[in-house]
Amino acid sequence: MPIITVQMTKGRSELKKQELASKLTELMASELEIEKCWVTVLFQEYERDQWASEGQLHSIKFGKGFGKQVTI
Questions:
Q1: How far apart (Å, rounded) are the C-alpha atoms in residues 62 and 53?
Q2: pTM for the complete prediction?
Q3: DSSP state of 34
Q4: What CATH class is the domain 3-61?
Q5: Quick one: pLDDT at residue 70?
Q6: Phi/psi of residue 20, each to 5°?
Q7: For position 68, what pLDDT does the model report?
Q8: Range 25-36 average pLDDT
Q9: In the chain, what are the domain boundaries?
């Protein structure tokens, strides 16, 4: 049973995660020639102050609001 782990910052909608899970499942099942029911997708979401690249926290590197969902 393949398990796909997606690590990302918080802020994406449930719909966007559903779309991604569906696409990843389709691709994995197709490539491994297995039923979709065998594929598991896990989302691990992090606050930007718990994620760093190039030695700098994303909360500092990108500033306030970067990557956040905008509601109108």
A1: 11
A2: 0.79
A3: -
A4: alpha beta
A5: 47
A6: -65, -45
A7: 58
A8: 98
A9: 3-61
